[in-house]
Design a protein that fits this description.
Low-confidence stretches: none
Number of strands: 3
Shape: globular
Number of domains: 1
Distance between the termini: 48 Å
Order of helices and strands: HEEHHEH
Number of helices: 4
Oligomer: single chain
Helix content: 40-55%
CATH architecture: 2-Layer Sandwich
CATH superfamily: K homology (KH) domain
Mean pLDDT: 89
CATH topology: GMP Synthetase, Chain A, domain 3
Strand order of the largest sheet: 1-2-3
Structural class: alpha+beta
């Protein structure tokens, strides 16, 4: 990835995090964390990976993000200094859940071996 794309991704990450924390008043998004952002080279598409503290709210959070996509994109466009504001695609990030599952299995193996 080029230095420019890395800077764009970091700025999109920073601004979206700020917008969701400060400007969005939706209880199902109150514990949403953006984990990473991947923007295409032409800046037309942006995958926004996110996780939630409470996985039960995931379907409602996905629906809320779809409904407020235009608002988030508009707010992002006003905050960025780039010619094109990318289309946002919100994707639940499974990596945190996966790492917790791996740690749980490792703990189980260690406990079984110590017996």
């Amino acid at each position: 990835m080029s230095l420019r794309m890395d800077k764009v991704n970091k700025e999109i990450f920073r601004q979206l995090t700020r917008i969701i924390q400060e400007e969005v008043d939706d209880p199902c998004l109150s514990f949403l964390s953006i984990t990473r952002v991947e923007t295409t080279r032409d800046l037309r598409e942006c995958k926004v990976f996110f996780s939630l503290l409470n996985e039960e709210h995931l379907p409602r959070a996905v629906e809320a993000l779809k409904k407020m996509n235009k608002f988030l994109r508009g707010s992002l466009g006003r905050a960025l200094y780039i010619k094109i504001t990318p289309q946002l695609h919100f994707i639940p990030d499974e990596s945190i859940k996966y790492s917790v599952d791996i740690n749980t299995k490792i703990d189980q193996i260690i406990n079984e071996e110590s017996r």
